[in-house]
Amino acid sequence: MSTDYLSYSRINCFLTCPLKYRFCYVDEIAPEFTPASLAFGSAIHEAAAAYFQSRLEAEPLKPDQMVHVYREAWESREVDVRFFNGDNAATLEDKARKMLSVFHESQDPTARILGVEEFFAVNLGKGIPPLHGYIDLIEQSGDGRITIVDLKTAAKKPTDFQVHNNLQLTAYSIGATALGFSTDDLSFRLDVVLKTKNPELVRMETIRTDRNRRRFMRVVHEVWKGIHQGIAFPKDDWHCVQCAYAQACKDL
User: Fold this and answer.
1) CA–CA distance, 188 with 163 (Å, rounded to integer)
2) Assign residue 224 a region: left if phi > 0, alpha if psi is -120 to 50, beta otherwise?
3) What is the pTM of this model?
4) Residue 198 CB: number of other CB atoms within 10 A?
5) How far apart are the first and last CA of the chain?
6) Among candidates 175, 186, 110, which has minimal Cα distance to 148?
7) Tens digit of pLDDT for each residue in 113-135?
8) Burial class (CB in 10 A: 0-12, 13-18, 19+), 209
9) What are phi and psi of 205, to 5 degrees?
10) What is the spatial distance between Cα 95 and Cα 7, in angstroms, rounded to a whole number?
């Protein structure tokens, strides 16, 4: 299969496990299952995106309506969900309800929504596919500051190191340039809805410099070199526990 574009998720997949990348994007093997954590995070993300889109349309969704979007996203999964850590569909929906309520309460109604799931495409040069992506949220505060936001769910608060070195936000900063924004005028933020007993929304601000972008581009080019050369070795680590290609890996 030819690779017609790169994305943060594809790059991250290769960095996590080159063999998993091959199974998913080259061999196009159907995953054995969807980890519940992935399905849960995606459904929360869709509910949040629907909320921000409704803000653009001047009729903000209420928490119960966000839960409805979550439920529809959860039920639309084509691949069976596999649960871990004692979770099931009911416990996760209860958790989603609490998290979405906290998310809703934490929003600033005065912030202006400039874009939701904004698509970008960046030419990476001759011989390498373009970089595609979708920026979760572009918002403008009352003082005119424009912020690029990446929304995540997580079991615990990220460290400052993780935020300042988050590759997805760096990709967003490159994508924002392609959309016509000046990186000198942008702020960057990681919003994390914690999946704790008492959920909370943590906002962590960061910056992105030309050095960050140059380093990211170096990573992208090296990843592409590995993909193009067919490098596909397995990486045995904690990701293996919930990997949807575990059986295919064992069968090699």
Assistant:
1) 10
2) alpha
3) 0.93
4) 7
5) 20
6) 186
7) 999 999 999 999 889 999 999 99
8) exposed
9) -85, 150
10) 30
